[in-house]
Amino acid sequence: MAEPTGTKPFSTFEWMLALRYLRARRRETFISIIAGFSFIGIMLGVATLIIVMAVMNGFRGELIDKILGINGHVVVQPIDTPFTDFADVASRIAMVKGVTAAIPLVEGQVLASGANNSTGALVRGVRAEDLPSLPSISKNVRLGTLDNFDEAEGVAIGTRLATNMGLTIGDKLTLVSPRGNVTPMGMTPRVKAYPVVAIFEIGMSEYDSSFVFMPFAEAQGFFNQDDKASAIEVYLSDADQTGALREPIETAAGRPVVLTDWRQRNMTFFSALEVERNMMFMILTLIVLVAALNIISGLTMLVKDKSHDIAILRTMGATRGSILRVFFITGAAIGTVGTIVGVLLGTLVCMNIESIRQFVSWLTRTEVFSPELYFLSKLPADMNAGETVSIVIMALVLSYLATIYPAWRAARLDPVEALRYE
Fold first, then answer.
1. Which of 412, 413, 395 is nearest to 332 (CA)?
2. Cα separations (Å) of 15 from 200, 281, 325?
3. What percent of the chain has a predicted confidence (pLDDT) above 90?
4. Least confident stretch, 156-165, 207-216, 291-300, 307-316
5. How far does CA 407 lie from the centroid of its chain?
6. Looking at the domain assignment, is residue 74 inside a domain?
7. Same domain, 107 and 215
8. d(CA 395, CA 14)
9. Which helix (H) or strand (E) element contains residue 77?
10. Could you tell me if 73 and 261 are in contact, meaning their C-beta atoms sit under 8 angstroms apart?
């Protein structure tokens, strides 16, 4: 006898029956509880994945923005002869397509002393005309001004360094350099006090507590670098183009130089971030997998409980394909709705992540995201559209795969055996 043709695939009848099985009667409460846990598991798994990935993306993006906002994408350093021709070299490099700025600088380590404390600091001498090319400094001045920076004969320091030293605008910051004056008794340290003319806040605690910006000519004199520069920092319009622009920059320099890009300088740090990000994705995917396994157990129990109904439907003309689709829809509905709600929950949390952090900090009386430990002053979250779509697809695929075996078992049920003892 030929198999009955039955209804069209995914017809109204199949949807009605599948959704009916999702509404539990009193004697089916346990099955409904399992379905509820499956829904909650998928929802929380998807939401957690979205939140964690968004925070890690935001963390990486903010770090790159802060690091490259104050450090060039490519650092050009001299070979063989000192950088006495730094002005001409910087002008030629700045003309390369894709380069937004080429900034000569004089750099050196010092001991910085204020009214309350002393600490190590990094001094950078920059020209006043180059400061607008450093928006992380020029656009984040909290006190004072960078106007007439070359003539002010003062320094600009970070907010955390100012706080640690107990300094404000007009106070003196004493700098001690080991590369000082050469005397018959040897080299003596150079000590000089500079007034604080500006206090900036980059938002990265490591930089706000250690960087001191000084007029270029003053830094040359302080570090015995008369008419020379330590290096030229090159800023690009696209940080990912460092590899393609290395050769044009080296050619434009027109002299022996060595180039170091931001990936080389921070390779270990960003590699560790990438490994951690990938491992977190794999580990948190297990939450969705466990929830999908709950769908299997819940549907298997539902099929066993509904074996009598399935047998009657088969004798009334329902095909095996129709029965399979009914239970597939039942399980897929749990996964689909759980995924959608998880995306909405994850998006809502990501949009208010900083407010949530502040609330948790207030509630627990602790610093949940310490700037000293995590380098940033606030908790970032950056949802990536492609990554979010990947999470949704992964959750849906796992949910749909979990429904196939129980639905297949239901379709294979023999109505004669199911009704034999009725």
1. 395
2. 62, 34, 9
3. 9
4. 307-316
5. 40
6. no
7. yes
8. 24
9. strand 74-78
10. yes
pLDDT above 50 (res 1): no
Mark whether 85 and 232 lie in a shared domain: yes
- Render pLDDT for 322-376 as a digit per residue (tens, 0 to 9): 777 887 888 888 888 889 999 999 999 888 888 888 887 788 777 666 655 555 5
Predicted confidence band at 2 (pLDDT cuts at 50, 70, 90)? very low
Residues 139 and 167 in one domain: yes
Q: Which stretch of DSSP H or E encloses residue 99?
A: strand 99-113
Looking at 209, 227, 255, the residue that finishes a domain is 255
Rounded mean pLDDT of 48-56?
87
Counting the structural domains of the chain, the total is 2
Cβ contacts of residue 50 below 8 Å, gap of 6+? 342, 343, 346, 347, 350, 383, 388, 391
Average pLDDT over residues 274-298: 81
**Residue 214 and residue 122 share a domain:** yes
Alpha-carbon gap, residue 410 to 80, rounded angstroms: 80
Cα dihedral across residues 247, 253, 256, 261: positive or negative: negative
Per the domain annotation, does 374 fall within a domain?
yes
**Domain for residue 1, yes or no?**
no
Whether residues 118 and 90 fall in one domain: yes
| Region 194-213 average pLDDT | 87
Q: Are 111 and 175 in contact (CB under 8 A)?
A: yes
| Residue 407 buriedness (CB in 10 A; 0-12 / 13-18 / 19+) | buried
Instruction: Give the pLDDT of residue 186.
Output: 59
pLDDT at residue number 198: 92
Cβ neighbours around 133 below 10 Å, total: 18
Residue 58 neighbours by CB under 8 Å, 6+ apart: 379, 380, 381, 382
Q: What mean pLDDT is reported for the chain?
A: 81
**In a shared domain, residues 288 and 407:** yes
> What percentage of the chain's residues is helix, strand, coil (to nearest 5)?
60, 20, 20
Q: Residue 285 sits in which domain range?
A: 12-64+269-419
More confident residue, 318 or 394: 394
Give strand pairing partners of 103.
233
Strand runs labelled E in 114-225: 118-126, 141-144, 155-158, 172-183, 186-200, 211-215
Residues 244 and 285 in one domain: no
Same domain? 209 vs 354: no
Q: Domain for residue 383, yes or no?
A: yes
